[in-house]
Specification:
- The complex is a heterodimer of chains A (119) and B (859).
- In chain A, 59% of the residues lie in helices and 8% in strands.
- Chain A contains five helices and three strands.
- The two termini of chain B are 55 Å apart.
- Chain B is α+β, with helices and mostly antiparallel strands.
- In chain B, strand 3 and strand 4 form a beta hairpin.
- Chain B is 53% helix and 14% strand.
- The chains are: A mainly alpha (119), B alpha+beta (859).
- Chain A binds chain B through residues 32-33, 36, 50-56, 58-60, 79, 81-83, and chain B through 15, 18-19, 21-27, 29-30, 46, 49-51, 53-55, 57-58, 61.
């Protein structure tokens, strides 16, 4: 557990793309393009990941053990080029840690009297 | 889409292999619906902005990760890291330093406008291809040729500058008005003189150095008047610091004016000629034209211009063969070092690669593709090479000023060698070469070798090919060391030979200085004699002074002053069989310089203009003209008068220790007509002191000042310094070659040691089995030694062959030492063998200590 804590801390803060990809995969397994669509929808078009950015992130996240490719059989009608990814338990832990880090930041900002609407 | 697919190759290949289909799919989905010319542009834009930044980022991430791995793995093996860095530093440092010198000597453009079109013209005769030119021939060459846009002439003259402060001796260049504009360098301030100036008065253009040192860099110097040899000259310009032509010691340029009678004597040669080739005219064509011109002049003046040709040289070709070879030899030596460094680095990385075969195999089994493994190993070797390169460049930067002595002084270049961007770029190329080429081979091997094989066979996979490659590397190292040892050994022998040459005089405890008497003040011979006698009398009276004399010029410092001799009734012939080196001297000259008087008497104060003209000649002079006869009382014509030999002295190496010299003739300082042969007026005071006599200079200054308050003193030097300087560039070069050779031996020793240590550790099982079967420790030692020495012997044979070829190429530097000099080769071979034995010994002893049980259990 101690070990995990250290590994998680090493990865924080997460690059925004990484965090969004983790969020996109939290509720269900998705293939690459579906991740792009999900992130775009979730951010109301703010963040449009390019294919290169996405797969560079995916490659790194697979290596870091945050996500894994799903090897189970796919629906027959699916495009064979699609590869599905899921979040690993370690990935979930990292996403949580990042969320904690961000909310702590927000709490600190609030404590200083900062309000989002007074830009 | 096809474009996008092609662009994907920019990604690291492992990434490409893994994700190319996914990328294409996602990209196609994202750009779906775009069509038409605008849509095409949008797709193109999306493809470029997607792939290029991401590919760069992907490479960069991998690089950082590999760098991390490399740092960690090198930190685990500091001995290896340090050796590798040191080897690269030595190779890169030596090469960077040497090539910065070579760059200055051979490559960097000379600081003149369009320097490739500038040529020098000399009179060539069958004996000497480079002689100065007479005004008459110069005038005719100018008039009769069309290959040049311009031609100018200059000569060298020393002049006394009197004005501000102490009187000072200047090296001036009287030049025709065409000369400075021809060089195409604008003055820093003011202007240069023109043909019009020459008619109206005396002008002078200052060098940057003189302007700074004597006039404090004051721009107001323009228009002021200075006195050169008593004649007022108006300063009209200052040249930039980079303009130092014809040599680095020039301090001022003055107009050179010819009077009609200067053109009378075609054999009065003292001009040097520069010309600029017309655009489109090659040097070869100009040479052809000049050949025709010189033949016409020979027909016109069959006596004076007999066999006179024109030698045309580009400015850079003027470098002596010797100077060129010196620098080339250094380049060769430093390339040998680089070769050694590369071979060593390669074998170091090969050995390391094999040691890590298991580690790499595990990584491969865990999914790292061969490309990733190769990348990581290359990152390591390039990283090591980079650190070594930085250290090497630092070493080179420190060494370059020490090497500046090797730049021939005849090169008209102001700036000193420095590490500029181009040399640094070259250093970077060396680094990449060593890092890539020699990290890549082992890395590719490691990447290719099948993971399973490596795992299965443990760490024993030193395949036959690797072994052969490593043996070849050792052979290369030994061969390169032999080449370096033999060539530098031959050069050392040559320098020994020079240094043991008897110069013909005794240089110790002799002080020399110059008091050049200006004209027309001292045109009268009697007036000069008065000056000499007064100075010499007082100097000889200084306690500690043994003797003192005046002479035209010192051996080795003044190598010219050549004049033809004819016997009574003979025609004057100007060739090497008749030329002598002519000097005017005062009494005691021979005693002061320690030149032995073989027969007859010294020049005497009573040999005045009213007495019969006499001469003292050298032994070779007497032998040449009167073999097997007593030369005393014999007569000959020299310097426009008939002379009688009254004394014979020993020969002197006037032209330096490395070159043959003309026979010498010494004439009394008083037996010359007023204003005649002014170039030979005695101006050097030589003083022999008792050993340990303190500095006499202040006292001599006072004496000269009281004889003539306006007379400057210059060029104060010990005679022994002049002799040392004669061999200085040789000695510097030798030290450098010696250092390079030592480095080479060190690297080769390290290489052999590394290789054998590695081989022994690979073979510990085999050796263990041998021990178990009863082999003695001594048998194992001799087995390992034999293998190492066999490689060394092959390297030595190859090395000797290459060294012989190299030595023949530089035989001009060897002064008669034969390229196959057995002593040098024997010493070189012995040193190499010793290095090899030392390199083999530790691994051999370790092999003998292999414990059979441990070795077998490791299986």
């Amino acid at each position: 557990m101690e070990n995990d804590r250290e590994l998680i801390d090493d990865l924080l803060p997460l690059p925004p793309a990484t965090f969004h990809i983790l969020l996109a995969l939290l509720d269900e397994e998705r293939h690459g393009y579906a991740i792009i669509q999900d992130v775009e929808a979730r951010t109301q078009g703010e963040l449009r990941l390019s294919a290169g950015t996405l797969y560079r992130s995916i490659a790194r996240m697979v290596e870091q053990g945050l996500i894994a490719e799903v090897t189970r059989r796919r629906p027959a009608a699916d495009d064979p080029r699609r590869r599905y990814y899921r979040v690993t338990p370690f990935g979930t832990a990292v996403a949580r840690a990042e969320m904690r880090r961000l909310s702590e930041l927000v709490r600190l900002a609030r404590a200083c009297g900062l309000k989002p609407e007074t830009v | 889409m096809r474009l996008y697919r092609a662009l994907l190759h920019l990604y690291p290949s492992s990434f490409w292999a893994e994700y190319r289909e996914d990328l294409c799919y996602a990209f196609a989905e994202r750009t779906r619906g775009l069509s038409g010319p605008l849509g095409f542009l949008a797709i193109l834009w999306a493809a470029l902005t997607d792939v290029i930044p991401n590919a760069i980022a992907a490479h960069w991430e991998i690089f950082l990760r590999d760098l991390g791995y490399a740092t960690r793995s090198l930190r685990r093996t500091p001995g290896f890291a340090l050796t590798a860095v040191l080897v690269v530093a030595l190779g890169v440092g030596a090469n960077t330093a040497v090539f910065s010198i070579a760059d200055l000597v051979f490559v960097r453009p000379l600081p003149f406008a369009d320097p490739d079109r500038l040529v020098k013209l000399w009179q060539g005769s069958p004996d000497f291809t480079i002689n100065e030119v007479s005004p008459a021939n110069y005038r005719d060459w100018r008039a009769m040729t069309s290959s040049f846009t311009g031609m100018g002439a200059y000569t060298l003259r020393n002049a006394n500058l009197v004005g501000l402060g102490e009187p000072r001796r200047l090296e001036t260049v009287p030049a025709t008005p065409e000369f400075l504009p021809l060089m195409g360098v604008a003055p820093l301030i003011g202007r240069v003189f023109t043909a019009k100036d020459v008619a109206t008065g005396q002008f002078v253009v200052l060098s940057h150095a003189l302007w700074q040192s004597y006039f404090g860099g004051d721009p107001g110097v323009i228009g002021t008047s200075i006195r050169l040899d008593g004649v007022p000259h108006t300063v009209i310009g200052v040249m930039p610091a980079s303009f130092q032509f014809p040599s680095r010691s020039v301090e001022a340029w003055t107009p050179l004016v010819f009077r009609e009678d200067d053109y009378v004597d075609r054999t009065d040669t003292y001009l040097r000629v520069v010309a600029r080739l017309r655009p489109g005219v090659s040097a070869e064509r100009a040479r052809q034209e000049l050949a025709i011109v010189s033949q016409r002049l020979e027909r016109q003046y069959p006596d004076e211009n007999k066999d006179i040709r024109v030698t045309l040289l580009r400015l850079r070709e003027e470098l002596s063969e010797r100077a060129r070879l010196l620098v080339l030899a250094l380049c060769g030596a430093s390339l040998c070092i680089l070769l050694l460094a590369c071979a060593n680095l390669a074998s170091l990385f090969l050995a390391r690669g094999a040691h890590r075969a298991r580690e790499l195999a595990v990584r491969a089994a865990l999914g790292a593709g061969p490309e990733r493994l190769v990348r990581q190993l290359v990152t390591e070797s390039v990283g090591v090479a980079f650190v070594g390169g930085v250290v090497g460049v630092a070493v080179a930067a420190a060494a370059v000023p020490l090497l500046a002595r090797l730049v021939p002084s005849s090169l008209p270049i102001g700036e000193h060698a420095s590490l500029d961007l181009r040399v640094l770029a070259l250093a970077a190329v060396f680094v990449l070469l060593t890092g890539f080429a020699f990290g890549l081979a082992p890395a590719v091997r490691a990447g290719r070798s099948s993971a399973l094989d490596a795992l299965r066979s443990g760490a024993r996979t030193a395949g036959g090919r690797t072994q052969r490659l490593r043996a070849a590397l050792v052979i290369v190292e030994i061969a390169a060391s032999v080449v370096l040892l033999v060539t530098s050994g031959l050069l050392i022998r040559a320098v020994w030979r020079i240094q043991s040459t008897d110069p013909g005089f005794v240089a110790d405890n002799v002080l020399t200085l110059q008091t050049a008497l200006p004209l027309p003040k001292y045109e009268a011979t009697a007036r000069r004699a008065q000056f000499y006698e007064r100075v010499l009398e007082d100097v000889r009276a200084i306690p500690g002074v043994r003797s003192a004399a005046y002479v035209t010029g010192l051996p080795m410092a003044m190598t010219g002053g050549i004049w033809p001799v004819s016997l009574p009734g003979e025609e004057v012939v100007r060739d090497s069989a008749h030329n002598v080196s002519l000097r005017y001297v005062t009494p005691q000259f021979f005693a002061t310089l320690g030149i032995p008087l073989r027969r007859g008497r010294d020049i005497a104060a009573t040999d005045t203009g009213g007495q019969p003209f006499v001469a003292v000649v050298s032994e070779s002079f007497a032998k040449r003209h009167w073999p097997n006869e007593d030369p005393i009382g014999k007569r000959f014509n020299l310097a426009m008068s008939e002379r009688t030999v009254v004394g014979v002295v020993g020969d002197v190496r006037v032209r330096g220790l490395e070159r043959p010299s003309e026979p010498q003739a010494y004439l009394p300082y008083q037996q010359v007509d007023d204003g005649s042969i002014i170039g030979y007026i005695p101006k050097i005071l030589v003083v022999r002191t008792a050993a340990g006599a303190g500095t006499l200079l202040p006292r001599i200054r006072e004496i000269v000042k009281s004889a003539d308050p306006e007379q400057p003193i210059s060029d104060v030097r010990a005679m022994s310094d002049i002799v040392t300087e004669e061999t200085a560039s040789r000695v510097t070069q030798l030290r450098l070659l010696g250092a390079l050779t030592l480095i080479a031996l060190l690297i080769a020793g390290l290489g052999i040691h590394g290789l054998l240590t590695f081989t022994v550790s690979k073979r510990s099982q085999e050796l263990g089995v041998r021990r178990a079967l009863g082999a003695q420790g001594s048998a194992i030692v001799s087995l390992v030694l034999r293998e190492g020495l066999a490689l060394a012997l092959i390297g030595i044979v190859i090395g000797i062959a290459v060294a012989y070829a190299a030595a023949r190429g530089m035989s001009a530097l060897l002064l008669g030492v034969r390229p196959e000099d057995p002593l040098t080769i024997a010493v070189a071979v012995a040193l190499c063998l010793a290095t090899a034995v030392v390199g083999c010994l530790r691994p051999a002893l370790r092999a003998a200590r292999v414990d059979p049980l441990t070795a077998l259990r490791a299986e």
